[in-house]
Protein 1
Amino acid sequence: MLDLNGKMNKAEYFFTRVIPSMLLLQFSLANTAISQNLVSNNSFETYTLLPNNYGEPCRASGWQNPNGNCVMVAGTGSPDFMHALGTYPVSLPNSIFGTCAAHTGSALMGFGTWSALISNYREYVSTTLSTPMVIGQSYTISFWMTAGKATYYAYRSNNIGIYLSTSTPVQIGSAPINVAPQCNVTSVVLDSAWTLYSFTIVPSIAYSTLTIGNFFPDASTTRTLSGPGSPNAAYYFIDDVVVTPQAPLPVEMISFEGKGDGDHVILDWATVSEINSDYFIVERSSPKTNFEPIGFVKSAGNSDHLIAYTFADESPEPGILYYRLKQVDFDGHFTYTSPISINFGFENSVCVVQYNPNSRTIKIIRNDSDQNDWSLRLLNLQGQVLWTDILHPGENRDVSMNESNNGIFLLQNEEHYFSTRKIIVY
């Protein structure tokens, strides 16, 4: 708690009084996330004593002040525990700081992130996680926060973050804790309504402690004068702090690639673990078509070892092709892989056919060792012959298409050295 020689309380020193009307956005966290939350008293509902003054974060069970003080001490950082059953000035919804109801339940925590009156003044709250984080496991870390609307403070700041550690960091007085937060809001927070901030991390250390506040000095903290009130501080309310492990993916895929092989495209992918995986659907698209299913591959179901899969697209079209996998669980849930692209031109075929949309040209390349001539013709889907020519051994040919020739066309070889090629012109 901040007190100038006992002559002013925190609100008088930090702010001038303006009672606001607070806007609330109502959201709820999924029950599964709550049940897995490593922050035991995440919405500050459980308490040892109801708050009756400034700077009493330790009255919220499991929370503490990193500088060791849980009452107002002049010149030290002093976050504020507030409760609907608390005593003014830390009662809700009407506290000395304005009108603000908790996002969830009856309690919240408030803290200052910058002061114009004391250089590098900071306030923090810390808690110990119910179990240490698992190295390599993905976690979602989130919290709800608001700066309020037309409350005592006139400034807003950035750099409101979460620092994870293996023990509670130590704050000296009101000085910034000189560490790098793993999660940080880098933009100035102007929210007058409750807003969710969410991050994903994969820890390389088994973190067991979480600390919230501004870990940057004044020189690296951006401040914005935002509304009425005394221009001497930035202050925020926080609620519903969540650290929850993300559910493992049903399939952990380590590769997905494709290549042309003669007249086919061969797709290969591999998984190192599968949980309730039923099958894969192979989908294909082009720059002018949407993804459509072209095949089905049964998956292993459950496994914890490397499994390789392969699929042959036997009717690819020349040009740029996109492939993706739709992985479907036994319960019908599904996920997509990111698409891969293949520039397919039948390079290993006796005839390479490529279409260039910029020049609207079809290139025909003989890719064989036969010494016979080819009698070629180009048809539309109505059977009309648009072009004919003789292609000698080792020759290539460019066929220009006019602006009206859009759609699907068929290239045929009367000598039957290759099957009919389908070409999409756009």
Protein 2
Amino acid sequence: MPLMDFLGDIQCQSALFNTVYFTKVKHSHNFRLPMPFRKHITIELENPSAENLAAYTDVQWEKVEQIPDDCGYLRTDYHSGTFQASKPLVLCQINRPATIMAHWLQYESVKSVRGEQLCEGDHQFFLDGDDKPTLNYLGSEDAYGFSWGFQHGVQSDGRCAIIKLENLKPAGSRVAAIRCRVDDAIRFQKSCRLVLTYENDPGAAAALGTTPIPYRHCVYYYAKD
């Protein structure tokens, strides 16, 4: 995935923000999710552009006697594309025992003003094959800790952050938010399916219409091989 997206600076356009796992400050990005490994680790960056890029990085590591057998590797589930509000969107599907520690979402619509209508899509987590949502957030603004929408703009409480609220031209808005689950990790033994759906708010679905909604989404989780 793009490095800046991995660091929470989605498309290099997030506002400055501060959370426990991700921060974007004036001259740096900081990533603090542990990345355990048993034998070795290789970190590779690829520049797909024709531009000559320059930067530097600092990696902090700690040598330990052993890693617990039940400790998983840090992994990501990253997607980008478009969807329509009239159809449920599967944001994430993980088919293994795992623990979700963080996730972020960016979406936009020419039919949305300051994130309104967009924010009404429910976030439904189906864990371990449950037929009904195990966790059901009534609106993505609630899934990211900001009730009553994203209209008040960029802000953070250290766990959750609105990292982008932009007006589009000639109309519409783009919103991005991130949530760090340091206190409320989502654990499951078999599977997790995360669905974004407007089925419980037909008014918002009708307002957004059939116009494609571009989105990017990422889940950070720990799982064994």
